[in-house]
């Protein structure tokens, strides 16, 4: 081979070695960026969650106290009514006649009483002078007393007729929302039997739910620490109730009643919470979830749910060391509070954990940590499910 050709080949091989090495270095990707943070450490109180149903504090089936034909309906179906507001009118003509008749009978009885009293006074005067026998005086006294009794009877009849006349106008016995009319004008109403409509109160409103024996003891203990009794007034333990509408804010209230015994078949006891409902959002029959305090205050370690991963049958979090290397730590999750998941075991709160980008990290790999600070409470998460723990 000519010398010039060998020189060119040798120079080419030497010249391309640094270029290949530089290309390999340029192709090596940098460690992936991953968001990391310290866990939130704060004082918390565990909550238990139950499903229950709202129920009106007061509910009335409106009936008529007298019988007769319905003449008027003076409300709009489904409207809000106030106590004393006129709802129905029974045909008043028969009751006007009865009242007039009773008043006339009362006038007759009063007239008879006046005459009997005068006769008695006259007989008493004559008997004193000896011109009237004692037996006649006794007869006049008996007639006067009978006339007085007749006046009292006629007065009672007139009052009853006036009361029946008053009952022809049926008013709302309480304030609340009225149902539709269940009978139309012209129909016969049976006294104390025919249901005309129903009314339920709305503010405040009650929430009933069932509690098992174990958690009942926790609630009773919490109530005792508040200096109250669970059955009498429900212990005053604060509660938070949420409804199925995710946009509705939670409603707050307090326990105010518990039944006096545990059901033998279900092993549960029914408890009631009372909540203010000024906007009338809550309706009787609506389902909801109630959260009740189930522990004393303690220091808890909180992490986002998205920071918890799975390793076979274990729950783990990804911890980043000072050198940027990733390792895993098994944890035991607890309930959700303040938008985070409580970590029962596995962390002490000083670790730096991956909170976003778990898919870009693996144990033993090096990452580029991007530090962030978690807020004490998250508002951009679904409502907490404090009664449900993540499977171990």
TrEMBL record:
Its main location: other. Residues 365-392 are annotated as: Disordered. It comes from Rhizobium metallidurans. One of its GO terms (molecular function) is transmembrane transporter activity. Residues 300-359 form the Multidrug resistance protein MdtA-like C-terminal permuted SH3 domain. It is found in: Cell envelope. The keyword Signal applies. SUPFAM superfamilies: HlyD-like secretion proteins (SSF111369). Keywords: Signal. Residues 231-294 form the Multidrug resistance protein MdtA-like beta-barrel domain. This is RND family efflux transporter MFP subunit. Residues 59-195 form the Multidrug resistance protein MdtA-like barrel-sandwich hybrid domain.
